[in-house]
Amino acid sequence: MSVNAEAEDWKVYLHDTLIMGAPARISCVNLHGQRYALSRGGVSMLRLEDEWYEDVCDPLKLVGELKKNRKIKPDLFTFWQRLPKVAPEYSFHCEYEDIAALPITTHAAWFSGQIKSRVRNLIRKSEKEGVEVRESVYDDDFVHGMTRIFNEAPIRQGRKFWHYGKDFETIKMQFSRFVKRERMIAAYYRGEMIGLIMLGDAGSFAITGQIISSLHHRDKATNNLLVSKAVQVCEEQGFRHLCYLNWSEDSLSEFKRRCGFEKIGMPRYYVPLTAKGKIWLRLGLHRGLKSLLPSNVRNALKAARTRWLEMKGRSQAGE
Q1: CATH code for the domain of 237
Q2: Rounded to two decimals, what is the model's pTM?
Q3: Nearest to residue 249, comparing CAs of 293, 296, 286, 309?
Q4: Three-class SS string for 263-308?
Q5: What pLDDT digit, counting tens, does each position of 194-234 carry?
Q6: Do 138 and 173 touch, CB atoms closer than 8 A?
């Protein structure tokens, strides 16, 4: 889906991607066989476009080249370490970014010792009721199941759901770009797909690229069953961690805790390349204005947003 994907190194080009579920084009540049995204704003920032799935090749060498190069001159370059490298390895300015990660040994160890008793009971109950979870393939039946689940409600977990309102063809096209690096896991009840995980292979760990279940079957503990199957697949494939992306203190965090996920701080580095970049980093503006708000204010704003979206959803349902 990229434009000028074969562009020469250090030449900026446009690349098609999805941002918050919507098609978008971003500025990118190829450096040593890797694609980097170049964002514009108060400062220009360069980062690996697919940093969940790749490590920066030789950061020290790249930083030296970025400081000398005149074709592109971002104000800041940022990169992070991926699991299992939790200890800082570089002397650049470092901050920690919290992710949700589940250490994997065996499925038996996870089931007996890493999850809450309530989760074990829910899994056993759902299995007795006939919910079946198995690996699947990305075919039309799978996409039809995705489409049906995606279009159940415009609001999920207190937020506007990015993929609500999309038709079969749109979903099939947009998610097909991830198929080569993901395994499909689906939950079925009486022949109907009621949940899915697109489990991403990030090399040293696995990622819950997409996990969602039917609201009509919320009594089935489908997401717990999906995580259980994902742990089993991780054990079989030799992954030492299962990541549920970033950790956030919201309604989803309690689900993660019960399923054995832990909050792990990963080192993220910020390297100023211009005087402007140095100033923004010193003032703490590199993470955006929202990050400067006290946590209690951010939480209050999130709660207000959730209430407003829920009211809007009820109003639309009554029209």
Answers
A1: 3.40.630.30
A2: 0.86
A3: 296
A4: EEEEEEEEEECCHHHHHHHHHCCCCCHHHHCCHHHHHHHHHHHHHH
A5: 999 999 999 989 999 899 999 999 999 999 999 999 999 99
A6: no
Q: DSSP 3-state assignment of 36?
A: strand
**Calpha distance 265→285 (Å, rounded):** 20
Contact (Cβ atoms closer than 8 angstroms) between residue 1 and residue 178: no
Give the pLDDT band (50/70/90) at residue 6.
low
Please state the domain count of the chain: 2
Cα-trace Rg, the chain: 21
Indicate whether 5 belongs to any domain.
Answer: no
Show which of 263, 282, 298 is a domain's final residue.
Answer: 263
CA distances from 260 to 28, 113, 154, 255 (A): 37, 9, 29, 9
- Structure tokens that stand for 248 in this block: 């956030």
Q: Got the DSSP string for 131-194?
A: -EEEEE-SSHHHHHHHHHHHTT-SEETTEE-TTTT--HHHHHHHHHTTGGGEEEEEEEETTEEE
pLDDT at 1: 40
Q: What is the pLDDT of residue 302?
A: 58
Whole-angstrom distance, CA of residue 276 vs CA of residue 76: 9
